[in-house]
C-alpha cells in the first residue's frame, strides 16, 4: 500500500482557512528565523478518508474479533465512554481554566479516586501517571522518597522472575538495582528464596498479583509480612487487577503501593498502543509523597492543592490523561458495584472454562485453577511447530494471537486472557481453532509454519528491519533487497 | 538435537561463550559459534572504544539480535587496540563466520597467565554438552 | 449496564465443564478472610440513558467560553475528518502492534507520523510517541546524560514550569544535577557553565519569546554538550526554521496542537526526534520499513532490543504504552493541513501581533523579543482584571505570578487562528483599565535582575 506521501499531488488541498480578518503586517519576524519549504503531503479530503480507512482495514482490534492477549485485558471498550469524553464540557476544557469554571472536571477526578480507593482498598490515589509503566516509575520514586524521609539508604528492589519487563526497567530508571526472586514449581514466588534475599538493603518488592502465570499468590500474606518485618515496602503491579475487582482488595493484603491500568481493567481503549492511564494508590503513610497536585473537596467545592511539600513532584504536566479518566469514570458508573464484581467473577470464569477445554490438547505447565488468564506451551505440538507458528496461524482464523514467549520462565509460553466480555460461543470457537491447529501440526505442519497466509502481508523480515533501519520515508528511497 | 557448533582447537573459551586467540601480546576475541546460533540473527554490534581498558570477564561491548541484547565479556584483561569496524555494516559476519571475519576486537594483553582461567576446546565442548537446553 | 454476554444457563454449563459448583470456588487460592463479603461502596449500576444524562450534567458544570489561555495547551482547528477516522474501532480498540501482519494500519500510520515529525523538526529519527511534552523532555535529559556520560543538565527558566518540574522529578530520581538558567528580556541568558550533558531550551519559550537558537547551539556545542529543544507549540514550525537547522541534537515537543482536543490537559502526545548517530539511544517504540516473504513492503516495530520487554533493567527507558492514537490524530491532521499549515501558522502570528500591537500602543507588553502566538502583558491588579473578563464571558490568559514570583500581575496571552478579530477587540477593549507604561518599565527591570541562574532546590542528592 502507498504511503500518504506517495499519493501527494502538488497544489492539492484538503483544508481552507478563512481570509485573515486582521490587517496584515509585514516583517513580523526576522528573515533568519523563517522556514523554507514545508515538507508535508498535498492531498484532498477524499484522499485522506480513503487512505486512513484503507489503513484501518489492515489493522485488527477488539471490535474485529477475539483478542486473547494475556496480561493486556483486551476487553470490549464501550462506545458510551467515547461519547462521554467527547462532550464539549470535557473536550474543549483548557487545563488552566479557573477552578470555579472547571468543577465538573475536578469532580470526575475526585470521585474516580474515591472509587479506585474503594475497589482496591488503598487509602489515596494519584491519577497523574499516563500509563502502567509510568505508574511503576511513580511508585518507585515514592519508595525512594520514603526511605530518604526516614534516613535509610536502601538500594535493592526484589522482582520475581516472572515479572513484566517494565518492572526492572522502572527500577533502574529510579537508580535502584533489581534482584530477581525465583518462582517455585507451583508458579508462585518462592518464599524461601525471597527470605534469603532479604536484608537491610532491600527497599521493596515489586510483585504482580495474580502473577503473570495467571495464578493468585497464595502466600501473599506471608510475603507482605516478611517484607514489612524487614522494614521494606510492597509494590503491586495491578496489570492483572481484572481478576480481583469486587472479589478482594490489594489494600487488604498489605500492599503499600499499587498501580492500576485504566486501559485494562476499566475498559478504556488501548488505541493501538496508547493512550493509557496508570493511577497509583498508596497507604495513608505514603500519601504525602504522591505527585503534586492533588484534587480535594472542601466546603462543597473541588480544589486543586499544590501545597504538598513532601511530594515526589510532578510526573506529567497538568493532571494526567484526563480524557481517559472520563472514560473510566463512565465505565464504573455504568457497571456499578454489581457490575464491577461481575467483571471479576466472569473474567475468571471465562479463563477457567477455556482452560478446561484446552488442557485436554495442550500442555499446561501449571495445572490448577487459574485466575483471569492461563499459560499453555507448545510442548504437545508436533513436527517442530512452535508457539510463534501457532500465533501466526491463529491470525488466519480471524482471532488475535495470545501473548507469546512470556513470561520468560516458561519455555514456549502461550498466555491466554479471554476477559469477561467474550461469550461462551466465542470461547468455544477459539478452542476449536486451537484444536484444529494442533491437528494441522500433525498432518500438515508446513501450513502452520508458513502462516499467516490470509493477512494483508505475509511474514515480515524483522532482521532486515533491524540491520538496515529505514525509519522514515525519503523520496529516493530504495527498498532494500 | 542440541546445537554445539564448531569449536576450533587453538582457542580458549569463557563460560559466557567468548573465544580468545593470543598472538604475542595481542588477544583477538569474538563470540563462539554456539553463541551466535543461540542469539540468532545479529543485527548490531556496539563496538568498544579504542583505548578502553577492561578486566577479564567484565563487559566489553554489546551484540544485539532481533530478540535479545547481550554483553560480550572480555575473555582476558587488556586495552582495546583495534576493533572490527566492518561489523558496523555487516553484523551478519558474526553469524556467518564467528571465528574469522566475525572477530570483534583486539586487546593489548596485560597478563598472559589469565588464559589459564579459561577453558580449552575440549572442556568448552564438555561444558556445552552439560548445559541445559 | 454491564458488558457480560453469558447467560446464567451458560455460566452453569461452564462451571460444569470446569468441574466446580459455583463461581466463588474459582477463588479458593485467595485466603478466604480476604474475600470481600459486602457490596463495594460505590454507586449502583446505571442504564445508558442515565449515564448519558449524568455525564452531560457533570460536563455542563465546566464552562468553556472564549479563552486566551495557551501556556502548553492550545486551542487549534481540528479538521472534521480526524474524529471520524479515530473512531474506527480497528485503530482505537487495537493493542500495540506486536503482531505486524494484522497491524499494518497502525504501523504504517506510525511510520508516516515519524516521517512528518522528522520533516517538521529537521531531524533524522523520531520515535512513535511519548506520554506528553513534559515526560519526553525528562527522557531527553536522561538520554543526554547517557550519551555524554555526565550528570548535569542546564535548563532554561523559560521552559514550561510544569515541564521543568517533571524533569526535576526524573533527574532527582537519577541523581542528575539540574541547573536553571535565568532570562533577560524574555530570552534565556547563558552563564559560565561547564561540564554539562545538555542545555534545554523551549522554542518558542513559555513566555512566548523566540529564543536565539543560533547562540545557544554554539554555546552547547563549544562545551561538548547536546542541545535539546522543546517545541511546546508545534504549529510554530509552520513558519519557524526547524530546530534541526540550528543543529539541535534532540528535539522533543507536544503534538496535541495537531488534532488533539484540549481535554483538560490530556491525553496529549509527546514527540521525540534525534540525529541518526543517537538512533539506538532513543527511548520508546520505533516503526521501521521492511519486506514480507513475498517481497512486498511492510512495517514492523524495530530496534526493539533497546526496549524494556527485551532489555529489562538495561532498557533505555521503561516506556511501554505510549500515545499511539493521539499520534494518529497528529498524522491525520498534518496530512489534512498539508502545506496549508503555513497559512494557519501565519494567522496565529498575524492575529497575535494585531492584539499585541493594540496593547503595545499603551505600553503594556513586557518583553521586546520576537514572538509567535503568545506574549506577556502587565496589568495593575490581575485579580480584578480576571474578574472583569470572566464576568464578560472571557477566560483570561494565564496569571504568570503563579509560576514566576518576579512576574506578579503579568498575564500570558495566547491567540490562535481560532480567535476572530471581534473576540480580540473585545479583549483589548477591557484593557484600558489595566496598567500604565511606567509600571511596565519597572517590572521589566525587576524581572531581569532577579532572574539569574540557580540550582533547582533539592537536587544533587
What fraction strand of chain C?
5-15%
- Described by its quaternary structure, the protein is heterotrimer
CATH class of the largest domain in chain C: Alpha Beta
The assigned structural class of chain A equals: alpha/beta
Broad shape of chain C: globular
Radius of gyration of chain A from CA coordinates: 25 Å
Distance between the termini of chain C: 51 Å
Q: What's the tally of helices of chain C? A: 14
Q: Beta-strand level of the residues of chain A, as a percent range? A: 5-15%
Q: Give the termini separation of chain A.
A: 18 Å
Q: How many distinct domains of chain C?
A: 3
Portion in helices of chain A: 25-40%
Q: CATH superfamily name of the largest domain in chain C? A: Type I PLP-dependent aspartate aminotransferase-like (Major domain)
CATH topology of the largest domain in chain C: Aspartate Aminotransferase, domain 2
Main beta-sheet annotation of chain A: 7 strands, mixed
What structural category do the secondary elements of chain C indicate?
Answer: alpha/beta
Strand order, biggest sheet of chain C? 2-10-9-8-7-3-4-17
Describe how the helices and strands are arranged:
The complex is a heterotrimer of chains A (481), B (133) and C (461).
Chain A: H1 45-56, H2 79-85, H3 88-91, H4 103-120, E1 124-126, H5 132-149, E2 156-160, H6 166-173, E3 177-181, H7 191-196, E4 202-208, H8 220-229, E5 233-238, E6 257-260, E7 280-282, E8 294-298, E9 301-305, H9 322-358, E10 374-376, H10 387-396, E11 403-404, E12 414-416, H11 424-443, H12 445-450, H13 462-467
Parallel strand pairs in A: 2-3, 2-4, 4-5, 5-6
Antiparallel strand pairs in A: 1-7, 6-7, 8-9, 10-12, 11-12
Helix pairs in contact in A: 2-9, 4-9, 5-6, 9-11
Chain B: E1 12-13, E2 18-23, E3 26-31, H1 33-39, E4 42-46, E5 53-54, E6 59-65, E7 69-73, E8 78-83, H2 86-89, H3 92-96, E9 105-109, H4 121-130
Antiparallel strand pairs in B: 1-2, 2-3, 3-9, 4-6, 5-8, 6-7, 8-9
Chain C: H1 8-18, H2 48-60, E1 66-67, H3 80-86, H4 89-92, H5 104-121, E2 125-126, H6 133-148, E3 152-156, H7 161-173, E4 177-181, E5 183-184, E6 187-188, E7 198-202, H8 213-222, E8 226-231, E9 250-254, E10 270-274, E11 287-291, E12 297-301, H9 308-311, H10 324-337, H11 341-360, E13 374-378, H12 382-391, E14 394-395, E15 398-399, E16 410-414, H13 421-429, H14 437-450, E17 454-455
Parallel strand pairs in C: 1-14, 3-4, 3-7, 7-8, 8-9
Antiparallel strand pairs in C: 2-10, 4-17, 5-6, 9-10, 11-12, 13-16, 15-16
Helix pairs in contact in C: 3-10, 5-10, 6-7, 11-13
Amino acid at each position: 500500500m502507498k504511503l500518504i506521501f506517495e499519493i501527494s499531488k502538488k497544489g492539492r488541498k484538503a483544508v481552507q482557512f478563512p481570509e485573515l480578518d486582521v490587517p496584515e503586517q509585514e516583517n513580523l519576524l526576522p528573515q533568519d528565523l523563517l522556514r523554507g519549504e514545508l515538507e508535508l503531503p498535498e492531498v484532498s479530503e477524499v484522499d485522506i478518508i480513503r487512505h486512513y480507512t484503507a489503513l484501518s482495514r489492515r489493522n485488527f482490534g477488539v471490535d474485529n474479533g477475539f483478542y486473547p492477549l494475556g496480561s493486556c485485558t483486551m476487553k470490549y471498550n464501550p462506545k458510551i465512554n467515547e461519547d462521554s469524553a467527547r462532550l464539549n464540557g470535557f473536550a474543549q476544557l483548557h487545563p488552566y481554566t479557573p477552578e470555579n469554571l472547571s468543577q465538573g472536571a475536578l469532580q470526575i477526578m475526585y470521585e474516580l479516586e474515591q472509587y479506585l480507593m474503594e475497589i482496591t482498598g488503598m487509602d489515596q490515589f494519584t491519577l497523574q501517571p499516563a500509563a502502567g509503566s509510568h505508574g511503576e516509575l511513580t511508585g518507585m520514586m515514592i519508595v525512594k522518597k520514603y526511605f530518604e524521609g526516614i534516613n535509610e539508604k536502601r538500594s535493592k528492589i526484589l522482582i520475581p522472575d516472572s515479572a513484566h519487563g517494565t518492572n526492572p526497567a522502572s527500577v533502574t530508571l529510579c537508580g535502584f538495582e533489581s534482584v530477581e526472586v525465583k518462582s517455585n514449581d507451583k508458579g508462585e514466588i518462592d518464599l524461601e528464596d525471597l527470605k534469603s534475599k532479604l536484608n537491610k538493603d532491600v527497599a521493596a518488592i515489586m510483585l504482580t498479583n495474580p502473577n503473570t502465570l495467571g495464578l493468585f499468590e497464595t502466600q501473599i500474606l506471608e510475603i507482605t509480612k516478611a517484607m514489612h518485618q524487614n522494614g521494606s515496602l510492597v509494590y503491586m503491579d495491578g496489570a492483572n487487577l481484572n481478576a480481583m475487582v469486587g472479589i478482594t482488595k490489594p489494600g487488604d493484603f498489605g500492599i503499600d503501593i499499587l498501580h492500576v491500568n485504566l486501559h485494562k481493567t476499566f475498559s478504556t481503549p488501548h488505541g493501538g498502543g496508547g493512550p493509557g492511564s496508570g493511577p497509583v494508590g498508596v497507604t495513608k503513610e505514603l500519601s504525602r509523597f504522591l505527585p503534586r497536585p492533588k484534587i480535594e473537596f472542601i466546603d462543597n467545592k473541588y480544589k486543586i492543592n499544590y501545597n504538598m511539600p513532601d511530594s515526589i513532584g510532578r510526573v506529567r504536566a497538568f493532571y494526567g490523561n484526563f480524557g481517559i479518566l472520563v472514560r473510566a469514570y463512565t465505565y464504573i458508573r455504568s457497571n456499578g458495584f454489581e457490575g464491577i464484581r461481575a467483571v471479576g467473577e466472569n473474567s475468571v470464569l471465562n479463563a477457567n472454562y477455556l482452560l478446561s477445554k484446552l488442557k485436554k490438547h495442550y500442555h499446561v505447565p501449571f495445572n490448577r485453577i487459574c485466575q483471569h488468564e492461563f499459560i499453555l506451551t507448545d510442548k504437545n505440538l508436533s513436527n517442530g511447530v512452535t508457539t510463534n507458528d501457532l500465533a501466526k496461524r491463529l491470525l488466519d482464523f480471524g482471532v488475535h494471537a495470545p501473548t507469546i514467549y512470556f513470561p520468560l520462565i516458561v519455555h514456549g509460553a502461550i498466555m491466554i486472557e479471554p476477559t469477561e466480555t467474550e461469550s461462551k460461543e466465542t470461547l468455544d470457537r477459539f478452542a476449536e481453532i486451537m484444536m484444529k491447529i494442533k491437528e494441522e501440526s500433525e498432518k500438515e505442519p508446513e501450513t502452520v509454519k508458513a502462516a499467516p497466509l490470509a493477512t494483508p502481508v505475509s511474514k515480515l523480515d524483522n532482521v532486515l528491519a533491524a540491520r538496515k533501519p529505514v525509519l522514515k520515508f525519503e523520496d529516493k528511497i530504495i527498498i532494500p533487497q | 538435537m542440541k546445537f554445539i557448533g564448531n569449536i576450533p582447537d587453538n582457542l580458549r573459551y569463557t563460560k559466557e561463550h567468548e573465544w580468545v586467540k593470543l598472538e604475542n601480546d595481542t588477544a583477538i576475541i569474538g563470540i563462539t559459534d554456539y553463541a551466535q546460533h543461540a542469539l540468532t540473527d545479529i543485527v548490531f554490534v556496539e563496538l568498544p572504544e579504542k583505548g578502553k581498558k577492561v578486566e577479564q570477564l567484565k563487559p566489553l561491548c554489546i551484540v544485539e539480535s532481533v530478540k535479545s541484547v547481550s554483553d560480550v565479556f572480555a575473555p582476558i584483561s587488556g586495552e582495546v587496540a583495534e576493533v572490527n569496524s566492518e561489523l558496523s555494516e555487516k553484523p551478519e559476519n558474526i553469524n556467518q563466520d564467528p571465528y574469522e571475519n566475525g572477530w570483534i576486537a583486539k586487546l593489548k594483553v596485560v597478563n598472559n597467565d589469565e588464559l589459564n582461567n579459561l577453558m580449552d576446546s575440549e572442556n568448552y565442548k564438555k561444558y556445552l554438552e552439560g548445559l541445559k537446553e | 449496564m454491564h458488558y457480560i454476554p453469558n447467560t446464567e444457563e451458560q455460566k452453569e454449563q461452564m462451571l460444569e465443564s470446569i468441574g466446580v459448583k459455583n463461581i466463588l470456588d474459582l477463588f479458593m487460592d485467595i485466603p478466604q478472610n480476604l474475600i470481600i463479603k459486602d457490596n463495594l461502596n460505590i454507586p449502583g449500576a446505571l442504564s445508558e440513558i442515565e449515564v448519558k444524562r449524568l455525564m452531560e450534567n457533570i460536563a455542563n458544570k465546566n464552562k468553556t467560553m472564549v479563552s486566551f489561555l495557551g501556556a502548553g495547551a492550545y486551542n487549534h482547528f481540528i479538521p472534521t475528518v480526524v474524529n471520524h477516522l479515530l473512531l474506527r474501532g480497528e485503530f482505537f480498540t487495537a493493542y500495540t502492534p506486536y503482531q505486524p501482519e494484522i497491524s499494518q494500519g497502525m504501523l504504517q500510520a506510525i511510520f508516516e507520523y515519524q516521517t512528518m515529525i522528522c520533516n517538521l523538526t529537521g531531524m533524522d529519527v523520531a520515535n512513535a510517541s511519548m506520554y506528553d511534552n513534559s515526560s519526553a523532555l525528562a527522557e531527553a535529559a536522561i538520554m543526554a546524560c547517557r550519551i555524554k556520560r555526565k550528570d548535569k543538565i542546564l535548563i532554561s527558566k523559560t521552559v514550561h514550569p510544569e515541564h521543568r518540574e517533571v524533569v526535576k522529578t526524573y533527574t532527582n530520581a537519577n541523581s542528575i544535577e539540574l541547573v536553571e538558567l535565568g532570562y533577560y528580556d524574555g530570552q534565556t541568558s547563558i552563564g559560565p557553565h561547564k561540564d554539562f550533558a545538555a542545555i534545554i531550551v523551549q522554542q518558542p519559550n513559555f513566555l512566548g519569546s523566540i529564543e536565539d537558537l543560533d547562540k545557544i547551539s554554539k554555546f552547547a556545542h563549544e562545551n561538548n554538550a547536546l542541545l535539546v529543544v522543546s517545541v511546546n507549540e508545534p504549529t510554530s514550525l509552520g513558519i519557524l526554521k526547524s530546530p534541526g537547522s540550528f543543529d539541535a541534537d534532540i528535539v522533543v515537543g507536544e503534538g496535541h496542537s495537531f488534532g488533539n482536543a484540549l481535554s483538560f490537559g490530556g491525553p496529549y502526545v509527546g514527540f521525540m526526534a534525534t540525529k541518526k548517530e543517537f538512533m539506538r539511544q532513543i527511548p520508546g517504540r520505533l516503526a521501521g520499513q521492511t519486506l514480507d516473504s513475498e517481497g512486498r513492503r511492510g512495517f514492523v516495530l524495530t530496534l526493539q532490543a533497546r526496549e524494556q520487554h527485551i532489555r529489562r533493567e538495561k532498557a533505555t527507558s521503561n516506556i511501554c504504552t505510549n500515545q499511539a492514537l493521539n499520534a494518529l490524530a497528529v498524522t491525520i491532521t498534518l496530512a489534512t493541513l498539508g502545506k496549508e499549515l503555513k497559512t494557519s501558522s501565519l494567522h496565529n502570528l498575524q492575529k497575535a501581533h494585531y492584539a499585541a500591537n493594540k496593547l503595545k500602543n499603551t505600553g503594556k507588553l513586557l518583553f521586546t523579543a520576537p514572538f509567535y502566538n503568545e506574549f506577556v502583558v502587565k496589568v495593575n491588579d490581575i485579580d480584578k482584571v480576571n474578574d472583569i473578563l470572566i464576568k464578560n464571558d472571557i477566560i483570561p490568559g494565564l496569571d504568570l505570578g503563579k509560576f514566576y514570583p518576579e512576574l506578579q500581575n503579568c498575564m500570558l496571552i495566547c491567540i490562535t487562528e481560532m480567535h476572530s478579530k471581534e473576540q480580540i477587540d473585545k479583549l483589548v477593549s477591557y484593557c484600558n483599565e489595566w496598567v500604565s507604561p511606567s509600571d511596565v518599565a519597572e517590572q521589566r527591570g525587576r524581572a531581569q535582575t532577579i532572574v539569574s541562574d540557580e540550582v533547582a532546590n533539592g537536587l544533587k542528592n
